[in-house]
């Protein structure tokens, strides 16, 4: 069985409907779609620190909505629009995950929306095995 979160009502930049789930859960795993530093359908104004905080928090909000916890996060992917953001992103990352750091990959990419960072998460919790 697969449970999908945020299918109806998900909106991207400018409030457009998105053709994918915010997250999908199956067999104890939760896969959170890439989140950008977006609030109310718009990318926030700010530097890499502010944008990183919101992108991670947006993922964590979906994780919590699905009943998972930060300690359940197994892996993250991070996409930065500029390699020079790496040290600043790491400081923000450490502030969120000092106790339970997940495995992670970080790469530089030309992002689809006009922002500095996008992150996604994979979580596992055996209590959600169907």
Structural key phrases:
two-stranded antiparallel ribbon; 8 strands; 6-stranded mixed β-sheet; 2 helices; globular; RidA family protein; alpha+beta; 130 residues
What does this structure look like?
By secondary structure, the chain is an alpha+beta fold. It is built from 2 helices and 8 strands; from the N terminus they run βββββαβαββ. The strands form 2 sheets. It has a 6-stranded mixed beta sheet with strand order 1-2-3-8-6-7, covered by helices on one side. Strands 4-5 form a two-stranded antiparallel sheet. Strand 4 (38-39) and strand 5 (42-43) form a beta hairpin. Helix 1 runs parallel beside helix 2 (86-97). The chain is globular.
Short account of what is shown:
The chain has 130 residues and is an alpha+beta fold. The protein is 23% helix and 32% strand. The radius of gyration is 14 Å and the shape is globular.
- According to DSSP, the number of beta strands is 8
Distance linking N and C termini: 7 Å
- Residue stretches low in confidence (pLDDT < 50, at least 5 long) are none
Structural class: alpha+beta
Strand order in the largest sheet? 1-2-3-8-6-7
User: What's the tally of helices?
Assistant: 2
What's the pLDDT, averaged over the residues?
Answer: 92
| Assembly annotation | single chain
Instruction: Identify the overall geometry.
Output: globular
What letter string, H or E per element, gives the SSE order? EEEEEHEHEE
Approximate strand percentage: 25-35%
Biggest beta sheet summary: 6 strands, mixed
Helix content: 10-25%
Radius of gyration: 14 Å
Protein name: RidA family protein
InterPro entries: RutC-like_sf, YjgF/YER057c/UK114
Family: Belongs to the RutC family.
């Amino acid at each position: 069985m697969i449970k999908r979160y945020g299918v109806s009502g998900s909106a991207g930049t400018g409030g457009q409907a998105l053709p994918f789930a915010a997250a999908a859960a199956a067999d104890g795993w939760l896969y959170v779609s890439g989140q950008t530093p977006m609030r109310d359908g718009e990318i926030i104004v700010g530097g890499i620190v502010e944008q990183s905080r919101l992108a991670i928090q947006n993922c964590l909000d979906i994780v919590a909505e699905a009943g998972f916890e930060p300690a359940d996060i197994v892996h993250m992917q991070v996409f930065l629009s500029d390699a020079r953001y790496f040290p600043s992103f790491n400081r923000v990352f450490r502030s969120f995950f000092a106790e339970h750091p997940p495995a992670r990959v970080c790469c530089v990419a030309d992002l689809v929306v006009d922002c500095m960072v996008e992150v996604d998460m994979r979580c596992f919790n055996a209590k959600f095995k169907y």
